[in-house]
Amino acid sequence: MIVDLEHFIRAEKPGWDRLTAILDRLHRDPHLQMSLEELQEFERLYQRASADLARLNTFAAEPEMRAHLEGLVARAYAEIHGSMAAETRFRFWRWLNETLPAVFRRHLRAFVFSLCLLLAGAGFGAFALQVDPESKPLLMPFPHLLKDPSARVAEEEAREQTNLEGHATFSGQLMVHNTRVTLTSLALGMTWGVGTVLFVLYNGILMGAVVFDYLRAGEGTFLAGWLLPHGTVEIPAMLIGAQAGFVLAHAMLDRSGRLGLAARMRRAAPDVVTLAGGAALLLVWAGLIESFLSQLHEPVLPYWTKIAFGCVQLSALIRFLLLRRKGAASG
What we know:
Elements: H1 5-28, H2 36-56, H3 63-86, H4 92-106, H5 108-131, H6 136-139, H7 149-158, H8 167-187, H9 194-216, H10 220-253, H11 261-294, H12 303-323, H13 326-329
Helix pairs in contact: 1-2, 1-3, 2-3, 4-11, 4-12, 5-9, 5-10, 8-9, 8-10, 8-11, 9-10, 10-11, 10-12
């Protein structure tokens, strides 16, 4: 029984405000992963608010305060029990528009780290080719990349480009190859991240050597028109695969909490699967673009058209991953 209502409200209100703040935070980010301490606090505040409501119901005064507390307890109950039921159903559109961008942003530092590794590798690859041009076969172990860039450009622009026969097969091969590279980068996270670091650096070296080779030959426009349409999706997809690998590595190495290795891996698994799924979708799109658009060159298709397409596509991807919010995704 409440003897002093004013004192009771003054003493309990900080806990209600704290519970409201947690619920607002969950509303803004429905896929927020709280720590064990935060979950325990959430449960304790919910139970205390429920007890306060029961005590307040015995008091005839303060109907507005009682209504406010009823709403707060109902929100907390729905968050605890409603979210558990919702998690059992997979909704692709919601996953794509809400879960994937939210998970990407939650592990943004891992993505930025992957990007820095790629750029560091690219810088080294360009520097190595400049210092030692004879190292080209070692830096670019693919026959079609060993040709003189200008000779290849002349060959590409002179060949029949409107025949799409075989493009579907080529597209399938690209998807399989790129998916294998991305999954390898992810799986190497199990080596405490060391393998992922080396793998991203290796691909950066290859990319940097190719870019430098074409720029040195004065074929930058061809290079941009060739790489940007599919590379603005393919490279982010591979970096997202590396990002997932570093999430795995963090789960293995993080011993700051009281969770064991198995529990840490189970906690990281949904985010790793989400990032892998997002990377796979991007790679499918990149494979189609590389097969049916990137292989078309002037005079069939102006390079500026392909470059503009790649820039617009990259802007859309950045906006989707970094700015997509729950409210914008509804419907």
